[in-house]
Amino acid sequence: GAGVSQSPRYKVTKRGQDVALRCDPISGHVSLYWYRQALGQGPEFLTYFNYEAQQDKSGLPNDRFSAERPEGSISTLTIQRTEQRDSAMYRCASSVRTSGRTETQYFGPGTRLLVL
Amino acid sequence: GDSVTQMEGPVTLSEEAFLTINCTYTATGYPSLFWYVQYPGEGLQLLLKATKADDKGSNKGFEATYRKETTSFHLEKGSVQVSDSAVYFCALISSGSARQLTFGSGTQLTVLP
């Protein structure tokens, strides 16, 4: 079946512009996660949702970052007034059931963001 | 807080060599432990996992045993292939309220024919 999809796969933007990154989870998956991965590092948690409710946003670095999942399926991560330090790979993952420590998270291909 | 430490790479092996990638962790309670793999040009894929002490996860010839006494989850394979060339990430989900994966920094493996 279809896996997690993300769009766009690559995004180049100028400093100060807003960007919206989209994640389409595996159909029926309850939980959705966003991570950010710098070059040569492992992914770092940003935020996650159960259904449409944002359960934890402790990893969002500042108030320029926000995320939503209004209908409990597709999610959008928005970065306002982008800065060069926001350049990274943004990864989305989903899991079948309400998030728990034994649940497998399935990752999408990621969106590579470059801020000039 | 939670953390994962992996052996630094890159690691270069000849085909059919034995592979070990070390992983140790710090976490509260009883975390679940995972190995993810990223092949060139692809996303992260779950390789194996273990959810309690002394469990052994295995997949595609890879194995890792959850050792609580040494807080380790080392990845092993008896005979690597060129197709195993990838970046390997050790990760955990703690048993506390957190639900996110905490990753190590990754180990690049290159297998030469």
Throw out a few tags for this protein.
heterodimer; A: 116 residues; mainly beta; seven-stranded mixed beta sheet; B: 113 residues; six-stranded mixed beta sheet; four-stranded antiparallel beta sheet; 50% strand; globular
What does this structure look like?
The complex is a heterodimer of chains A (116) and B (113). Chain A is mainly beta and 116 residues long. In chain A, 0% of the residues lie in helices and 47% in strands. In chain A, the strands form 2 sheets. In chain A, strands 2, 4, 5, 6, 9, 10 and 11 form a 7-stranded mixed sheet that branches. In chain A, strands 1-3-8-7 form a 4-stranded antiparallel sheet, with no helix packed on it. Chain A is globular and about 40 Å long. In chain B, strands 2, 5, 6, 10, 11 and 12 form a 6-stranded mixed sheet that branches. A 4-stranded antiparallel sheet of chain B has the order 3-9-8-7, with no helix packed on it. Chain B has a two-stranded antiparallel ribbon with strand order 1-4. In chain B, β10 (86-93) and β11 form a beta hairpin. Chain B is globular. In chain B, 40% of the residues are buried. Classes of the chains: A mainly beta (116), B mainly beta (113). At the A-B interface, β4, β5 and β10 of A face β5, β6, β10 and β11 of B.
Radius of gyration of chain A: 13 Å
Shape annotation of chain A? globular
Distance N to C terminus of chain B? 41 Å
The mean pLDDT of chain A is 93
**From N to C, what is the helix and strand string of chain B?**
EEEEEEEEEEEE
Low-confidence stretches of chain B: none
Percent of residues of chain B in beta strands?
over 45%
**Count of runs of 4 or more consecutive helical residues of chain A:** 0
Rounded to an integer, what's the Rg of chain B over CA atoms? 14 Å
Q: Give the class of chain B from helix and strand content and strand pairing.
A: mainly beta
